[in-house]
Amino acid sequence: xxxxxxxxxxxxxxxxxxxxxxxxxxxxxxxxxxxxxxxxxxxxxxxxxxxxxxxxxxxxxxxxxxxxxxxxxxxxxxxxxxxxxxxx
Length: 88
Prior knowledge:
Layout: H1 2-25, H2 30-40, H3 46-55, H4 65-72
Helix pairs in contact: 1-3, 2-3
């Protein structure tokens, strides 16, 4: 039950970031930055693209932990933190 609560908290935090990001998106130069991120991650939803832009504006490739290993033969360095996105 504790795991479900932490998952709910993570989703709540992500949606709160989305709401704040949407407010700021059209108020500054951030819209241009969002469009740049959108061009790199066109296969992601609007919400996930916005989450990527907010958390790692300079991201060039986003993949799951297993995808990094399986598809790219790369390993995540110890202590690295991931980007939170909403899974379908």
